[in-house]
Recover the amino acids of this structure.
C-alpha cells in the first residue's frame, strides 16, 4: 500500500515535467502571488501548457487559486505543502522499512 | 515622526530618516544599488527598529533576493520565518488590484503588522498601465499605502546612466512622492564611482550635498561629499574653477623655480 500510495502521490505531484517545474518554482520562491500567465512566463512556458498542470496542483491543495479583483491569482499553500511533504517523507520511510 | 533607514549617513542626510507615512522614491540606473538600499531599509526596520516590512518584487525572483541578501549578511528567509518580513513576487496587474477590498497583499500587511513596504520597481507599472491612467493609478496606490500608515520606498529605473537630463518618469511621479533619493554613476579620473543625493523631502530640510557611496559586504555605505568637482549629476564632472586655478598656479610656480 505504501509503495502504491507513494507512486500515486508522486504521479499527481510531479507526473509531468511542467508540474515538477511549477513545484520547484514555488518551493524556491514561496512568495509568488501571481496570475497563470505570469507564472507560465516565470518558468519559460506558454499559459495554455501550464493551466491544466496548475489546476491539478490546486486540486491537491499544494497551490491556492483565489479571485483577486478581476484576476485569478495563484500562490503556494504553505500549510498543505508542508503536510504533503511530511506524507511523502513518511511513505518513503515506510517503503524503506518494508 | 521619522522612520530611520538604519544607514546612519543617509539618516543624517534626511535629518533623522524618512518621514513616517511618506512615500520615498529611489531613482537610479541599472546597477546603482536601488534594490540593495531598499532591502537594507526593510532589513534594518525589522532587525533594529521593530518595524516589519513587505517587499514587493516583479521581475527579480525571491530566490535571487535571498541569495544576494546573504552576501550582505541578511538572512531574509529567517526574517520571513519570524514573521518580520515578507517577500512577495507578483506582476503589475496584480499590484494594481491591491487597492481592491479583501486582497491578499493587505492581508499580509495585517498579518505581519507591516510598517514599511518596498515596491521594486515601480517602472514595471509603466509597461502595464496605459500612460493616460498611470498617474491616477499611482496616486490611488500611494494613497492606499498612506491610509495604511506604511512608510514606503518605491524604486524607479532611470534610463540614462550619464547625461545632463534626468527624467524620473513621464507621468510626474516626482510630484506625487514625498521624498526623492537619487543614485548616480559618475566618472572621475577614468573610474566609475557611485554618488547619492537627496533631491527632495516634502516638509523637511535635508542635506543637499552629493556624496560618494559604496556597496560593501554590509550593504550601502555612504562616504563624504565629493570635493572640488562640479557637474557631477551629468555623470562626467569637471574640476571647479578654483581647483583649476590652484593647479595652474602650482604649475606656474614649478616652472618658475
Amino acid at each position: 500500500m505504501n509503495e502504491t500510495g507513494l507512486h500515486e502521490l508522486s504521479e499527481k505531484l510531479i507526473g509531468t515535467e511542467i508540474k515538477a517545474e511549477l513545484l520547484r518554482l514555488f518551493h524556491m520562491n514561496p512568495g509568488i502571488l501571481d496570475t497563470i500567465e505570469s507564472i507560465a512566463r516565470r518558468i519559460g512556458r506558454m499559459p495554455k501548457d501550464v493551466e491544466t498542470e496548475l489546476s491539478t496542483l490546486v486540486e491537491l491543495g499544494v497551490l491556492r487559486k483565489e479571485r483577486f479583483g478581476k484576476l485569478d491569482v495563484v500562490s503556494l499553500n504553505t500549510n498543505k505543502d508542508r503536510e504533503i511533504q511530511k506524507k511523502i517523507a513518511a511513505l518513503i520511510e515506510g517503503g524503506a522499512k518494508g | 515622526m521619522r522612520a530611520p533607514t538604519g544607514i546612519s549617513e543617509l539618516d543624517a542626510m534626511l535629518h533623522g530618516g524618512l518621514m513616517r507615512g511618506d512615500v520615498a522614491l529611489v531613482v537610479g540606473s541599472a546597477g546603482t544599488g536601488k534594490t540593495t538600499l531598499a532591502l537594507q531599509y526593510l532589513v534594518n526596520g525589522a532587525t533594529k527598529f521593530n518595524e516589519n516590512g513587505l517587499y514587493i518584487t516583479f521581475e527579480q525572483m525571491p530566490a535571487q533576493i535571498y541569495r544576494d541578501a546573504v552576501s550582505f549578511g541578511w538572512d531574509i528567509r529567517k526574517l520571513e520565518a519570524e514573521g518580520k518580513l515578507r517577500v512577495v513576487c507578483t506582476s503589475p496587474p496584480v499590484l494594481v488590484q491591491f487597492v481592491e477590498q479583501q486582497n491578499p497583499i493587505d492581508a499580509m500587511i495585517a498579518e505581519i503588522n507591516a510598517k514599511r513596504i518596498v515596491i521594486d520597481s515601480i517602472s514595471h507599472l509603466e509597461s502595464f498601465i496605459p500612460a493616460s491612467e498611470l498617474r491616477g493609478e499611482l496616486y490611488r496606490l500611494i494613497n492606499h499605502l498612506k491610509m495604511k500608515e506604511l512608510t514606503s520606498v518605491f524604486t524607479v529605473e532611470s534610463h540614462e546612466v550619464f547625461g545632463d537630463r534626468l527624467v524620473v518618469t513621464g507621468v510626474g511621479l516626482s510630484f506625487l512622492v514625498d521624498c526623492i533619493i537619487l543614485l548616480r554613476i559618475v566618472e572621475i579620473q577614468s573610474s566609475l564611482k557611485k554618488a547619492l543625493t537627496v533631491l527632495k523631502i516634502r516638509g523637511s530640510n535635508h542635506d543637499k550635498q552629493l556624496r560618494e557611496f559604496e556597496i560593501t559586504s554590509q550593504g550601502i555605505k555612504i562616504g563624504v561629499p565629493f570635493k572640488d568637482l562640479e557637474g557631477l549629476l551629468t555623470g562626467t564632472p569637471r574640476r571647479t574653477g578654483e581647483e583649476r586655478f590652484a593647479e595652474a598656479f602650482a604649475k606656474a610656480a614649478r616652472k618658475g623655480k
Notes: Chain A touches chain B at residues 28-35, 38, 42, 66, 68-71, 73, 75 (CB under 8 Å). Chain A has one domain: 2-97.
